[in-house]
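Fold this sequence, please.
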Amino acid sequence: MSNWQIFLSRLDSPDSMFWRAFEATILIAIFAQLLAVLLGLASALAGRSRVWSLRALSQSYVLVIRGTPVIVQIFFIYFGAALFLGFDPFPQSDSLILFSVNGSAVAGIVALGINDGAYMSEIIRSGVNAIERGQIEAATSLGMTHSLTMRRIVLPQAARVIIPPLGNEFNGMIKNTSLLAFIGVYEMFFDAETHYSQTFKPVPYFLAVAVWYLLLTTIWTFIQGYIESSLDIDYRVVQRSHPFLHRLTYAFTHQPR
């Protein structure tokens, strides 16, 4: 079987093991991104806290995670967690909500979530800082607590600033799942590596998996674009109520958010 035949067969008729790896890639990316958003939000809020120890913890978390390679963090969490905790938090078989998954996959989700959480912390912090200080002061003058102000005033508006870079982070998360092959997670890159080791033909398998990653990230790019355009209320109002010439003028005179 020639390289091109293998390549085409991996695209138009992949086996059941590939689809298992494909599903694992998507689920790991989603769960890891959800964890990253939660950690990023907690870190960003801690960074704005009046408690010095919380601010120091947030800054240390961002500094250490952003300053070390993600592959090192994956290995450290998977192999080193048991050493520090005194027990193995990632057994061979584990459960994640409604799914039964391998312990290495859970470790990978935790590692990727912790890594991206540091970047999400900075993204959320920037989004919160983009809100005018006067709105926070007005909410305080009305008797709203800090936590209530964040929930009802700041975070809903900051979401419009946060969503675009969050989408970019998820795009990167999909690709970073390939690093989990090094700890035995059966995702798309591991599947390609397995077939390569059996045939010693690396080009068709790795080229095919690159196309699949490109397909996933391209689909997400369209979804992200739809979400961002839905949030751009001002543009949609102008688009419905003005003729083509006015819409064209609007596009050239208004900077993208």
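Strands lie at 93-96, 99-102. The first helix runs from residue 3 to 12.
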